[in-house]
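Box 3.1. Reading complex inputs
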Amino acid sequence: MKGLLAALRALATVAGVWLFIQVLPRLLPEDPARIAAGEWATEAEVAGFRRLMGLDQPLLRALAASASDLLHGRMGTSLRFNRPVADILLGGFPVSLRLAFLALAISMLLAWAMALPRGRGIRGLQAAAIASPVYVLGPLLLWAVAQHVPGLPVAGLQGWASWVLPSFTLAVPLAGHQSRVLAAQLEEVRESPGIRWWAASGVPGALRWRAWQLPAVSGPWLTVLGLQLGGLLGGAVLVETIFALPGLGQILVGALASRDLPLVQGAVLWGAGAYVVTQAAVEGLQALLDPRVR
Amino acid sequence: MRALRTHWPAAVFVLLLLGWVLGGDGRVDLAARLQGPGLAHPFGTDEVGRDLLRRWWLGGARSLTLAAALTALHLALGLLLALGAHGTAPLRRVLLALADLLASVPATLLALLLLALLRPGIGSLVVALALGGWIPYARLALNRLDVLRGDPSLLQARLMGGGPLHRLLHHVLPRLAPLLLAQATVGLGAVILVEGGLSFLGVGLPPDLASWGTMLASGRAFLLASPWTLLWPSLGILMALLAAGAWRGGAGEPGT
């Protein structure tokens, strides 16, 4: 029952985002079609762009057309490629999905490595990981590593080696955030009366860890992981640009540069949808794992 | 001494903001392009021979000014929306629903959506980043206003004849301020991060305006010829984000 409600809420949020994306171009003070057509466009050309973007129709008719499109599994047609938006996005998704899971896997290892030791040095390392934007780390890694290691491609997809640097780059800031949550939670659990009581009663450390500490720590960690995964499923815009990976992020940046409104709208809707659905799924998972959430 | 220990990041930011004094980008000197650090140019030179120290400092001042202005805008917007909406239940519900809706689109995607619709420029960047930036401030302020509603001191102020403006200025705002300012140190770091990313993609600040993001974007092409073009803005962003993070840690403690 509760799960159904959560699913309905997620669906309502995605519908809200869809409505927002459709209405936004009409709310702006300047006509997006005129900007897309360029400075020297004639009125006829601007009108052509307006028609391609679907902005010449009344709002309600445009909404109805877009809704029926979505229900048929389509998302409009790209202006630049003249192909269905859904096909283009589906083409980029496997790359983004693979990058997301590789980065998350690496970040989980890094996060635990940074969360378990205590002390000032490790806190500084966590702060540094959080303060390392991918657009700083990526180019620096390219310069420091890729040009010295033979067989490590600097850009594009050429076998498994192409995934090493992008997923590591993406993983570092994610790991920083995770490890901060993990460390705070570990500290709290270590000091909790329950754990101290079990320790005083002679329950061995390994059992305490498995039976009480790990479950107590993993709840907030899962929440952070879910948020991060949700954000990544829409495409890692910066990392895909730096390493020239043909994923959703690259598609979005390309669409932005060519002012391909239907493709931008589709990519943003996809990203928001992935984010919302992942969050709902993680909430459901948590209710299964932690009776307190139920 | 204590203030210095908590607020040293502010000193770092003020030092960087002094970069505005430099005024301009420096002279183009094609004969001295892509040099390493030396006596004439302590940080080296960029791809058209401009002094990198000068550009770095000015760019840092620009990045930080933009980030600080945006953070202030977010805070003011969030506060005003919360103050306007918290009295009437339907308005409040609309505001919270809008916040939930906008928060369900990842921040970079939201900014990119707007940048695809607007004319390129600083104004568009401000609008794109302001669209979602007010959310945490409005949520915090609404929360705090709810707590304050039943507060005896507010009732007393009203009974003693304090008008709405007096109560707002002397009783409500002073108690909202610490929370919102603590959030602002978080927000400052987030804005520096996102603005740098957008400028790096070439959709943020125009490339002819020096900022750390645009310097990174142009330096990337000369990575192998001269890593310095990339190194300095990278260090600048790292430094600013670390300082913002440290400020958050200090400002977050109660009573400081």
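In summary: DSSP finds ten helices and no strands in chain B.
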